[in-house]
């Protein structure tokens, strides 16, 4: 007899996996038999035999539909089959009990599981997060650590193990034990909550959205799982104010704090037990008169008591005692409620198996009553859907209890695969079992860990470190170079699986930096500040960015698959997007695999390589210990083909003019346009037209929507109807802009942060508009006249065949109309000043880095608001220009953030909006004619974003001459070539340095003609370059504030001969 049922196949079990309470499930079995019945029971209840009906399709298939209970429960089933011989056989789960295809047997088999659940998901902030587990004493010493060390020293006469503070942060952790194995001295390294707060920006650069803190409450030990006082922070770490300060600073960056709740036991040296009399003698150890006496179980008072796993430093608590429950979660001032009110966003329950189900549910209710949207996470080491602890089936995932569990089964299966102890097929089966058993929301929020404080460090495990070393040798063991290289390669692949699999990835502090170490205490060494592995750091930053920016990695349907024994694959699909990971864990073997894609576009996110998918399939070859992370879409990114053309880069204020006071007239602009048209130039790229800010920089503008003073105000008389129409159409920015400038005049030019509170906070706008009506109208009329003039100039340019490329600064000036109007969209402090500044780290332009001073957008708190702000900016830009140049394009991938008062070298790259931003702008605007300014130090993520955005990028000869010359026509079609930009030397100045002894003007001339001959569709040269000027005509020197932005062309240099030369090149090279 043959039979078949596959619990992963909708033809045999529909719906797949866990089901909501009350939902119907259809089960089928293929078998040639006389009859078939479903053997079904609810966990802990009697078995039912449910007859199954033969389907009328003619196949040998029996089916039945069952109704699940109206509340959470576990159902179990297998099939009983009667054959032609009258005998009964059984079909049940496979021997590994992992679900999927099962097997026939002569006796009652292992059953299949159906998890019936009531919805009880984790908050969205947790599902979307990267979690960082942090051992507080070992992460970082803060500026307060010397003070904390003094406060934490035990007073004279204190009994119990002593505290020893290590001076050398990079020393190896150790335990000093007596002959019985008990610790006699606890080493502390001085990590503090202030130290964590000072490194929040570092954590944010990894994409961290939540910090899971190992215990922080007062305790005798450094691990603090022996709580001494639940209501008090350990003085070595900080105090209540330190915690609130950390929570507030973390919250400002979109990072939540998850506390470790150790509620199954306390410390013997504690307020509650007080074995040594250090806490005033009111503890249970002192006798029945103690208010805590009933919390503990004494077999023989006082020295024989129930303790956690027989460790007498950890007396167990009776969780059924009402007074204990009230203290932990029931009372208004209970532990759980208190710390949520102080700023915590969740609790992790240590050893959840030792807490009764109703105790856990009580904590959950208390959390929801105190702070809705918080998280309850449990430490469970096995499959939490069917866990039995102390003879009791647990209901962790059935609803109303845990919202997330630590996914140790993931860790074990993934490590075994990476180490060659199991195959890719085994890993896929293990992960599919979790997918089958866990409610979808629970799998989405499962905490996928690789390292932890309870296990050997990931690198040490992956480097095949010897397992049986004596403790003394383990303390000093580090992987030799070849093993470290192997471990690092494996960790990269393992972390790719971790960040791609369904669930929430958790990084154990230091794993991303190359930390090594055997089991406790060596896996709890101090973070290796200053000794980090930069390659691993970059890898983990990329993982955090990919998870944040590519929605399928957070919300996509999850399908793990073994392709060969060595090659493992994960597919995550959401809508028409899919991200597919393919990993070859083999150390020696190259593997070639073919996968079905059905995609019209494939991009490897790790290499930025676009791959051809033919006939709906893709064949890839993976070298040993490598991976592909493929982004697949049904169609390629939208790209606008650029017609072959040449153009000039010239700021409006640099146009030749006789106006002594600066600026230009409409006649000046038209004459310049005539020069461009007559010279065969079909593009005019401007610098930003908005008002300039500090140092005359148009990229530090106090008014991004307005037009600046380089434009003429035009005739003071105006058509009233046209002015009113202008005001209506531009009210979305004009009203606030005019009010800002009016109030700034009224306040003597002070920054808005120093205005009276009602003006600074915009509390009574209606009254302010009424009071300052005249000044507001005056500013509006100025903008009306400038816009009328500019649109006339643009119309004239278009009529002569010249298209205008406008420049869109990415950031706003801190003292400006945009930041004042939209304060919630920027990362500001309580006074309205920039909490984080835009800038760049040390680079080619500035060895010290640059702090631009601009406030950064708050993508975390108000993404929708920032999107609307950008939509309005782009709409206005497309009214003023034909194409826009998006300044600092790489900031949409990752932007550099410098804390207020810090040096640029102390900044961090934080994750930007990614491709979602460009998809959303195209959806809202219908089109996005733009050039991406993708200059500077770029990583793979920026290259990916450029390709997916479909925008042409920039290449500048002074940086990329070899690359530009080597480009094929297809490659160059996605680029705009420049001889230089406003931030470069002029070409003559550059040639003078690069080609000493040659005529720099002649060399620059050859350079420009070479660009005209290039494959790129658009070629743009600064006006200084075609005139032949040296560095005295340079527009801007990055990192400096004086002497920039003032260059103006001499009309006499725009000669007929120059015009003829440019026109000749344009005609010769088809531009």
TrEMBL record:
User: Which keywords fit this entry according to its UniProt record?
Assistant: Carbohydrate metabolism, Glycosyltransferase, Transferase
This entry's Enzyme Commission designation comes to: 2.4.1.25
Q: Which Pfam families match?
A: Alpha-amylase, Glyco_hydro_77
State whether keyword tRNA processing applies: no
Q: What are its GO biological-process terms?
A: carbohydrate metabolic process
Q: Which organism is it from?
A: Sporobacter termitidis DSM 10068
Domain Glycosyl hydrolase family 13 catalytic, chain residue ranges per copy: 133-547
Q: Which family does it belong to?
A: Belongs to the disproportionating enzyme family.
**What does the record give as the reaction this protein catalyses?**
Transfers a segment of a (1->4)-alpha-D-glucan to a new position in an acceptor, which may be glucose or a (1->4)-alpha-D-glucan
What the entry lists under InterPro entries is as follows: GH, GH13_cat_dom, Glyco_hydro_13_lg-like_dom, Glyco_hydro_77, Ig-like_fold, O16G_dom_2
Stretches assigned to coiled coil: none
A single GO molecular function term of this UniProt record? 4-alpha-glucanotransferase activity
Entry protein name: 4-alpha-glucanotransferase
């Amino acid at each position: 007899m043959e039979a078949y049922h596959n619990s992963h196949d909708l033809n045999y079990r529909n719906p797949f996996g866990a089901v909501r309470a009350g939902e119907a499930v259809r089960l089928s079995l293929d078998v040639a038999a006389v009859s078939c019945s479903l053997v079904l029971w609810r966990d802990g209840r009697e078995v039912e035999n449910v007859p199954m009906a033969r389907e009328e399709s003619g196949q040998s298939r029996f089916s039945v539909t069952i109704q699940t209970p109206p509340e959470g429960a576990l159902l179990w089933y297998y099939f009983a089959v009667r054959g032609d011989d009258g005998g009964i056989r059984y079909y049940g789960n496979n021997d590994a009990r992992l679900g999927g295809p099962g097997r026939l047997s002569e006796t009652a088999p292992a059953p299949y599981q159906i998890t019936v659940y009531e919805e009880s998901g984790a908050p969205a902030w947790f599902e979307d997060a990267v979690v960082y587990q942090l051992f507080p004493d070992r992460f970082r010493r803060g500026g307060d650590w010397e003070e904390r060390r003094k406060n934490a020293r035990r007073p004279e006469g204190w009994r119990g193990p002593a505290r020893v503070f290590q001076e050398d942060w990079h020393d190896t952790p150790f335990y000093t034990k007596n002959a019985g194995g008990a610790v006699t001295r606890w080493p502390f390294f001085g990590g503090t909550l202030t130290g964590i707060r000072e490194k929040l920006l570092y954590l944010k650069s990894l994409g961290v959205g939540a910090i899971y803190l190992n215990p922080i409450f007062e305790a005798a030990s450094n691990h603090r799982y022996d709580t001494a006082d639940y209501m008090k922070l350990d003085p070595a770490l900080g105090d209540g104010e330190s915690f609130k300060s950390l929570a507030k600073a973390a919250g400002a960056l979109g990072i939540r704090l998850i506390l470790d709740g150790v509620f199954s036991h306390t410390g013997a040296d504690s307020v509650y037990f007080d074995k040594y009399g250090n806490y005033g003698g009111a503890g249970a150890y002192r006798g029945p008169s103690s208010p805590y006496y009933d919390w503990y179980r004494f077999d023989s008072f006082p020295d024989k008591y129930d303790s956690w796993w027989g460790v007498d430093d950890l007396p167990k608590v009776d969780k059924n005692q009402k007074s204990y429950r009230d203290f932990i979660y029931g009372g208004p001032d209970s532990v759980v409620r208190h710390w949520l009110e102080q700023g915590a966003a969740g609790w992790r329950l240590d050893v959840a198996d030792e807490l009764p189900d109703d105790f856990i549910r009580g904590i959950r209710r208390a959390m929801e009553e105190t702070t809705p949207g918080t998280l309850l996470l449990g430490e469970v080491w096995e499959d939490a859907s069917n866990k039995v602890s102390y003879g009791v089936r647990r209901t962790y995932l059935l609803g109303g209890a845990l919202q997330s569990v630590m996914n140790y089964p993931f860790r074990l299966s993934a490590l075994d695969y990476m180490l060659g102890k199991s195959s890719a097929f085994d890993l896929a089966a293990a992960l599919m079992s979790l997918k089958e058993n866990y409610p979808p929301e629970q799998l989405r929020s499962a905490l996928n860990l690789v390292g932890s404080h309870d296990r050997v460090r990931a690198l040490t495990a992956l480097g095949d470190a010897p397992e049986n070393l004596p403790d003394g040798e383990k303390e000093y063991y580090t992987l030799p170079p070849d093993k470290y290289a192997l471990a690092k390669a494996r960790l990269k692949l393992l972390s790719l699986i971790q960040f791609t699999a369904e669930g929430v990835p958790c990084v154990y502090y230091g794993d991303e930096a190359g930390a090594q170490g055997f089991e406790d205490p060596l896996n709890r060494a101090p973070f290796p500040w200053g000794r980090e592995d930069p390659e691993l750091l970059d890898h983990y930053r990329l993982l955090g960015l990919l998870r944040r920016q590519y929605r399928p990695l957070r919300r996509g349907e999850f399908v793990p698959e073994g392709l060969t024994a060595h090659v493992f694959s994960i597919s995550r699909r959401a809508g028409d997007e899919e991200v597919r990971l393919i990993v070859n864990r083999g150390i020696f073997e190259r593997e070639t695999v073919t996968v079905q894609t059905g995609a019209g576009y494939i991009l490897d996110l790790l290499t930025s390589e676009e791959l051809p998918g033919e006939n709906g399939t893709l064949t890839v070859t993976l070298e040993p210990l490598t991976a592909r992370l493929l982004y697949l879409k049904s169609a390629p990114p939208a790209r606008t083909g650029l017609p072959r053309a040449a153009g000039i880069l010239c700021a409006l204020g640099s146009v030749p003019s006789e106006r002594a006071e600066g600026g230009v007239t409409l006649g000046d602009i038209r004459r310049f346009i005539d020069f461009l048209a007559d010279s065969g130039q079909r593009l005019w790229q401007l610098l930003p037209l908005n008002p300039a800010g500090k140092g005359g920089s148009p990229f530090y503008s106090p008014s991004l929507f307005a037009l600046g003073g380089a434009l003429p105000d035009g005739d003071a008389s105006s058509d009233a109807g046209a002015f009113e129409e202008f005001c209506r159409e531009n009210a979305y920015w004009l009203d606030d802009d005019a009010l800002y400038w009016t109030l700034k005049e009224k306040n003597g030019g002070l920054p808005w942060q120093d205005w009276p509170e009602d003006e600074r906070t915009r509390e009574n706008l209606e009254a302010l508009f009424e009071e300052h009506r005249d000044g507001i109208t005056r500013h509006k009329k100025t903008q009306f006249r400038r816009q009328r003039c500019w649109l006339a100039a643009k119309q004239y340019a278009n009529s002569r065949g010249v298209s205008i490329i406008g420049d869109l600064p990415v950031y706003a000036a801190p003292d400006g109309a945009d930041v004042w109007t939209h304060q919630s969209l920027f990362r500001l402090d309580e006074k309205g000043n920039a909490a984080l500044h835009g800038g760049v780290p040390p680079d080619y332009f500035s060895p010290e880095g640059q702090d631009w001073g601009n406030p950064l957008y708050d993508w975390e708190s108000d993404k929708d608001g920032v999107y609307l702000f950008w939509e309005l900016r782009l709409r206005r830009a497309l009214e003023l220009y034909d194409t826009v140049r998006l300044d600092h394009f790489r900031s949409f991938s990752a932007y550099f953030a410098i804390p207020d008062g810090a040096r640029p070298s102390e900044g961090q790259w934080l994750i930007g909006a990614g491709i979602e931003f460009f998809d959303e702008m195209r959806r809202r605007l219908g089109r996005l004619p733009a050039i991406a300014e993708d200059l500077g130090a770029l990583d793979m993520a920026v290259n990916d974003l450029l390709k997916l955005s479909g925008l042409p990028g920039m290449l500048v000869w002074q940086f990329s001459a070899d690359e530009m010359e080597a480009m094929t026509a297809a490659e160059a079609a996605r680029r705009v070539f420049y001889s230089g930009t406003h931030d470069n030397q002029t070409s003559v100045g550059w040639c003078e340095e690069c080609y000493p002894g040659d005529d720099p003007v002649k060399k620059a001339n050859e350079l420009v003609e070479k660009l005209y001959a290039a494959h790129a569709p658009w070629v743009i040269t600064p006006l200084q370059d075609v005139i032949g000027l040296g560095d005295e005509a340079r527009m801007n020197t990055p990192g400096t504030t004086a002497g920039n932005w003032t260059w103006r062309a001499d009309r006499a240099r725009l000669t007929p001969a120059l015009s003829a030369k440019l026109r000749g090149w344009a005609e010769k090279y088809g531009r």
